[in-house]
Write a structure and sequence with these properties.
globular, 13 helices, 37% helix, alpha/beta, 308 residues, homodimer, 3-stranded antiparallel β-sheet
Chain lengths: 308, 308
Amino acid sequence: MITALGGGVGASKFLEGLLAIIGQEHLNVVVNTADDITFSGLRISPDVDTIIYRLCGIVDKQKGWGLKGDTFHCLKALGGFGLDTWFNLGDRDLATHILRTSLKQKGFTSSEITSKIAADLGLPDNVSILPMTDADVETWVVTCEGEIHFQEYLVKRKMDIEVNRVTIRGIDQAEPAPGVLEAIKESRVIIICPSNPIISVGPILQVHGIRKALEFSEAKIIGISPLIGGVPLRGPADRLMKGLGLRVSSTQIARLYQDFLDVMVIDTKDSSEAQEINEIGIESFVVNTLMADREKARALATALLSIL
Amino acid sequence: MITALGGGVGASKFLEGLLAIIGQEHLNVVVNTADDITFSGLRISPDVDTIIYRLCGIVDKQKGWGLKGDTFHCLKALGGFGLDTWFNLGDRDLATHILRTSLKQKGFTSSEITSKIAADLGLPDNVSILPMTDADVETWVVTCEGEIHFQEYLVKRKMDIEVNRVTIRGIDQAEPAPGVLEAIKESRVIIICPSNPIISVGPILQVHGIRKALEFSEAKIIGISPLIGGVPLRGPADRLMKGLGLRVSSTQIARLYQDFLDVMVIDTKDSSEAQEINEIGIESFVVNTLMADREKARALATALLSIL
């Protein structure tokens, strides 16, 4: 059994590669839900959907999120009513959000809803998508213009504003979703996906008991840095780390995971950091981490499992 | 000032004709909301939407409801999740329902939401669409297979089952929406649209105070029978009347409105009923009521106003 933690496009690409090489071994994916948002009354879980869509082979690969071939007629009509349209909701994608919102109102948990969506969209049987928690948790960022939802910062503002602080609303009350601690306990290897350490992996580690479970896990815990040549391929990892007063480096990310991480996988462009990572008591493993296509993602996953 | 009461495709076609001939005179439309339904968590108000879409010139004229040129990608995807898809929700039409549901959750009333939708879609300034009530009211029909929502009977079952009784859930607590009683009081003419007397006009008349306001109104009150040659053009008026033990005739419909109606407009095919209607103390007016196109609807409206 393998368990992976993460969220976002980088994680989804890596997981697609991993899934291609593990045969029937069970893969649990503990997914960040702190970038969930309610938009026009619909509850949207971007990281969960991006990973499900990718692993079901229906993601829009060009954008990295959403459904391939989707149309946007409803969104345009919502705009006609003066509603915000900066969050891109495709017509078929909307069905996922309508279903999630409707089931949530009926009292189903995020875990139950996620399982249903995954099964209906054709997720392979040996994969479990586990939201990190069934509690409602949201990442907000504090900027000089006030506090805004992380999605507003990322999608609407396109990261054009400095972030001084990140708050994960509701995280204090968040318990791990069913199966999360068991997955961590029973896996032979745990992978921290190449995801943003502040807003994708960070919230997962703050859910009550997860960090402790990782510390006590007997699994080999391997992290993959989302930085290549010291910068993220997409997303605001560097901006957020800088804003929080952190050095932007794979070594710094390894430090954030120091209490539980065994191995840090870094890109060949960052090989100069290998020694420094070793010095904080974490093995380093240098490999090409750029996942330009599915084959490259598969090669990265193969290299990673070779560490064992 | 003119006020019309009704709901459904027949009403919307007539109102389009009426609007074309009244110049700048104000037209209030008191619309049935008892066929509202919650579908996949979205609150849908079919009669309100059908009339707004028609008067804004964006209705699908072939079907009589929905938006012209709409697509159905989201509905198909909802079907993939095993959700009911018998209620036809177009992608652009969905925006109306998402807006309504979202505003309702924020505490806005049906009246406020209806006004916003109408204004945003371009309803002419001299028309007010007034839901009959801001309370949640739903028509259910009692059949030999149990009680089902009216929309399930109409759309899913295609009226293939006998109805023994109609119950309007929530009607006891329903007060008229703001403006409804004033509209009735201040109008020079009140028109009962060619709508189903049981499930379109019936619920409006059961809202607390509306029937009494009609009785005391000084306006000329003119009803248009939805029957042509003794049968409705579409919808279950005949089946429901039969199921309730009523005779299916324009005279019977006139009887249902007897306490407030001044004139009953009937089709030339039903001219034999004119005498009988006169005998119950209601004037009859015989004219061609088939609204095959906008011009015919306009001609019907012109004939109706000529009664004054």
